[in-house]
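Forwarding these from the shared drive since the link keeps breaking.
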Amino acid sequence: MNYAERLKNVTVLGAAGKMGSGILLLTAMEMTDLASKPENKSRQFVLNAIDVSDQALGGLMKYLKVQVQKAAEKKIVPLRKVYEDHADLVDNKDIIDRYVADVIGIVRPSTRLESAYQSGLIFEAIIENPGLKVKLLSQINKNNAKSPWIFTNTSSIPIHEVDEKAGLGGRILGVHFYNPPAIQKLVELIRADSTQSELVDFALVFAKNLGKIVVPSNDFAGFIGNGHFMRDALHGISEAGRLSAEMSFAEAVYTVNRVTQDFLLRPMGIFQLIDYVGLDVCQYIMSVMNGRLGTPCGKVSPEVLHSPLLDRMISAGVRGGQRSDGSQKDGFFKYEKNRPAGIYDPDTKRYLPVSAFQAACDERMGPTPLPQLNWKSAVKHPKKEAALEDFFGKLAAMDTPGANLAKRYGERSREIGLKLVSDKVAQSEEDVNMVLLSGFYHVYGPINKYFKPVTSNQ
């Protein structure tokens, strides 16, 4: 079965969700581009968009129309070539409208799982629930005579586990898109020992056609991205707990968040990133990883990935995450116009205004190295490597609370990255760095020359 034939009938499970909608958008455009080629004129392409709610699917179709139109406007020149035989399509608007109609025309929204029984390829992008994934994929596998290939977008669950429990016979591959899939370039590709090589070959072509950066990850819970992020987040939470002995909890959260953003040159602080992903999502990913540490090699790990603070926040109804319009929900921070304005105090169960303690915290931390550098300016810097070496060289020589906290944090991040390689989660240091660079938008990888082991009195 060739590439186009495999994509002739495709299903996306969880199509109306944050990840599923982006995967559906990219797949719909790839299938439409295939359908426009002369050799595929006789093929009818169908993309089943399956979700539990008709209302959500209605919103999905509106989203697709808007996003496809934006994409069409950016590639009007190649589209003119595609539709050059259509004399009725003269203006750019006519061509764009036709392309949008063609893309939307292959999508079949449905709330019935039976729609997937004729597909040769299934994208699974439902919630991160191992039992539910196995249940749905088992049902499809038993009722689909085409022995479909399964691409799961799981960000933490080992692929071999789903394969074995759903009885897929190696016809499953982890294809972990990053949020939002339509924009993020990174895709982690995770194969189990049993995964058929043809799936991997196909996925590499598919990802290349979508313009993605592919990084292979070995089949360990959490893979590279969450393997680093969850441990990095736990370190930030631990540092805030340690600082809470000498300042208020809100001040500690602000301090660690600012250090990780302004001293480490990240696009957002660690507590903002936890809010962005969702406290409950982070808690769940940690629980999935925590129960599977050491697999699949059979080693028993003494490491525990769990945060009582996250438990406490979630039990108080503080969850973070985004609304359907993309705006940020309140988590550790209270957001006004998507900017942090307050910090949650678990004792009083209310948000304290950042303005009440920001100046004092900044003074206590001390300044960042001069000349000033931030994430945005570092990303665009014409001599980025030299600028980073200068910035972190000066940071290493500083003996302020903020600088020492940053050095300890940078070394812990490096340690996590190196452990992912030594534990054979990642195949190389370069792969770890690429995931953090392209998936988390860091300006430098965690395994670097900027941070060396720090002493305990820092």
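-- next protein --
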Amino acid sequence: MKNIRQGLLATLTLLLIASCKKDIKPLDLNLTAVSSLLAPSDNSDIQLQPATGGNIVFQWSAAQTPDSGVVLYEVAFDKADGDFTKPVYKILADGSGIQTQATVSQKDLNKIASLAGIEASSSGKVKWAVLASKATNTKISTETRTLQIARPAGFATVPDSLFLFGTATEAGNDPTNAIPLKKTADGVFELYTSLTAGSYLLTDQRNASGTEYYIDVNNSNIIKLGNTPTEVTGATKAFRLSYDFNVATSEATEIQSIGLFQSANNAEIGQLTYIGNSTWQIDSLPVVFVQFSWGRDDRYKFIVHTPAGLEYFGSQNANNVPPAGQPASYFYLFPVTNDQWNNTYKFDPSADNHSVKVDVYFNANGPYTHKVTVL
């Protein structure tokens, strides 16, 4: 009986193998190249506005296959004199590659133009074609087209993080100790810090292999790629350093001082000075609430003094409650108006007729905030 069962199993196995062999068919890799590019039209002019401009849709006719099998498409881009053997960029078609169109963002086109050798704030030509693939068989379209692309100012690829180092900085000249900047938007960074006589560079990594940038002080303070140090002269001063890689602009705003503004007096009652590490401080400030018919007023906010004028920082809440039991977000600093009463904080009641220590933190590693300690 055992032998019979073994014989039946062997027979079934052979039949199954034979059946499988009959079902195996060689894959037909034949296909014709895309013969017609439909849009954009040849020599189209594209004025890039990556931040606000709409997407560009590339369209073409379908490649033909004998068995109507699945074809994958990519749009290939190359320099004006390129032959697509090594395209500078490729983008998969919509629908995971199976549709006969590709939706390309202006941000990607800006990157493509940069890779094709077109500088920022200038224009040039980029060629495009369509690659049709079936398994390992890939064919380039029989037609190619050209785009005339005008790039805006700024970088095609903006850094995701940014650091500051150099002899002019608080970090020193070692990039591994570089100071991180706060990212306020895509490609936009700022840092409250001090600069002294010396030089500095920007980098996207806290190590020696990062991509480095510098400020061209002789050309409207634009941001440039490279390791030419930016020179600083004169006495040590506190600044707000602002960098927008989308338009390659920079700004260094001197922070002369930060005043504590008491609403009831409609005036500043003390000045904080910079002590390093993005922090302003006053060690001891006498505070006296102002008596009104309804009670003693305890409201305050901050005024940042710059050569261009005054900037007000206060609460995101127009009307506030006393600080006791409030979350850390109560003390967060936001740009506000110069309104005497709104967007203010309130002192702890124990501060009345006492001195306080005040710290303002414009650190890059968290929300801008402050602390009031009753002495």
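The chain has three domains: 37-150, 163-252, 257-374. DSSP finds two helices and 30 strands in the chain.

- D.
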